[in-house]
Amino acid sequence: MPELPEVEALRGFLADRLTGRTVATALPVAFHVLKTYDPPVSALAGRTVTAVDRHGKFLDLTLGAGDPAAGDVARDLHLVVHLARAGWLRWQERLPSAPPRPGKGPLAFRLALADPPGTGFDLTEAGTQKRLAVYCVADPAEVPGVARLGPDPLDPAFTQETFAALLAGENRQVKGVLRDQSVLAGVGNAYSDEVLHAARMSPFRIAARLDAEEAAALYAALTGTLREAVERSRGLAARHLKTEKKTGLRVHGRTGQPCPVCGDTVREVSYRDSSLQYCATCQTGGKPLADRRLSRLLK
Predict the structure, then answer these.
(1) pTM given for the model
(2) How far is CA 107 from CA 18, 33, 36, 89, 130, in A?
(3) C-beta atoms surrounding 54 within 10 Å
(4) N or C: which end of the chain has fewer CB within 10 A?
(5) Residue 8 pairs with which residues in a beta bridge?
(6) Tens of pLDDT along 143-190?
(7) Which residues share a beta bridge with 91?
């Protein structure tokens, strides 16, 4: 799943290529992808991209007001995209000339630019769980997922004191708190593992029980890990971002491999549809965490 660093890199990539350019067509291909109907996505045609922003894991393309004389609404519109678990953006210097066929392959949405003709991007989604979402709205806050977002950890206003106050009200495992988008915007399964490893903290610790020193260490690990990942991804083409994410991870997705810090074996705790990875030596005093799914299989 693309998380804050990858979406931030995509934002920069698209800002360089879309700002000031006019949309020719915006076409939903998969029936599930478009989550709004008013204004219609067809209203994006003829509008110029004026900005590309990020809200947590959401991309936000601002398209300038249309021509009232041509019957367009005289207001900006926003194309908001959430790539979900298996979605991705593919930049195309030459889009296929033939119209896409709904229901064929992973293609879910296509945006084509007017000049030069044929450039634009495709949104694709692999797998059977179709969660990629596109919204056409007058205000990004109309998107429920955007409206409920907590603070962005890379916002200059997100201080150590702000973070400590958030933790103090959370009587939950710190892994879940870091992933909760209504508490903190942009961090998912992979980077929460990386942050906790950098902080040398068990994912099962209760957030509200962290003392001031532990909260400070977690804040430093959170902001430092995300900033480093953003810098590694900055300037990369969209097609290289997935590989960059994988190569930059220390524990997530590396079950059975040696920890790069201490050399111990990276371990895993499995859930119904996800898993977490950690180093027992670095994070839990050498004690393996209970893997509930494995425990059930052994009964």
Answers:
(1) 0.90
(2) 20, 10, 19, 10, 11
(3) 20
(4) C
(5) none
(6) 999 999 999 999 999 999 999 999 999 999 999 999 999 999 999 999
(7) 121
